[in-house]
Structures are given as C-alpha cells and as structure tokens.
Design goal:
By secondary structure, the chain is an all-alpha fold. The chain contains nine helices and no strands. The longest helix has 19 residues.
C-alpha cells in the first residue's frame, strides 16, 4: 500500500504538502492502481479520447494504440481485458503525453473523480483533484495573479 492510498483525513492533509513533489502523471497512476476495473476503464478512456492513434504508437510500446484501433471511432470504450497488460509506468507515460497534447483532458479528470462515488473517498484521488484544480486556476488567472 502506498502512502497515497490511506484514507485518514490527517494523513491526507499532510500529503497535500507533498503533492508538489509528486507529478500529476504519478498521481494519476496512483489513482489508477487503486481503482476498480470499471473505473480504470473510464480513466483510460478520458485520457485516450483526445489523442490520435499515431501519437499513441509512441507511448508504452503502442499498447494504447492497439486499444484505440480495436475500439475505433471517437466513441470508443476500453474493456477490462484491454487493461491486462497496462502497467503503472504506461499510465504515467500516457498522462505525460496527454498533458502535452491536451492539458484540459487531464484537468477534466478532476470533475470525473469528484463525480465518482467509488473514487471520491480515495486520498490519492482527493490529492489529484486538489492539484488539478489549483493548476487550472493558475492557468486561468495567469502569472500576474500568482
């Protein structure tokens, strides 16, 4: 069990200060690891949606390109069997790439996590939401407000 998987409010508060030492891709990977299969599928769908197949070929040995090609179209669904060979480092690489292509897709995870009854109580998810919301606010207000 990682330090981020604890559900203690005191531990969660202490982790917020450490959030800036942990990258967003690492936080998303923590959430992914702690999530049940159905939520993992939704998480990957959210991250894959804005990315083209060509860019996915270069990430994680093409594992996500294969998922996207199998599913086809913009309205695709990740199946639990698609995730069998997805490792934490693959998720980190996917999030890192997704942030470069569409930071909004990654920031959109905050709304999805808050709406998920399964993940909303997770310390890792709460920490990720906090970091994503702060990042989105700082982007909207710009460097002058910061």
């Amino acid at each position: 069990m990682s330090a981020l998987e604890t559900s203690s409010p005191a531990a969660s508060a202490g982790l917020v200060g450490q959030a800036f030492d942990i990258t967003i891709p690492e936080l998303v990977a923590e959430v992914y690891e702690a999530a049940p299969a159905e939520e993992r599928c939704h998480l990957l769908e959210q991250l894959l949606r804005p990315l083209g197949v060509l860019s996915l070929v270069a990430i994680a040995d093409g594992i996500f390109a294969a998922v996207r090609l199998r599913s086809g179209g913009r309205d695709f669904h990740v199946r639990p069997e698609d995730m069998q060979s997805v490792r934490t480092d693959h998720v980190i690489a996917l999030v890192d790439h997704a942030q470069q292509v569409s930071v909004e897709a990654v920031d959109g995870l905050a709304q999805w996590l808050m709406a998920s009854p399964v993940l909303s109580g997770s310390a890792a998810a709460a920490l990720l939401v906090t970091v994503l919301v702060r990042r989105a606010r700082s982007r909207r207000t710009g460097p002058a407000a910061g």
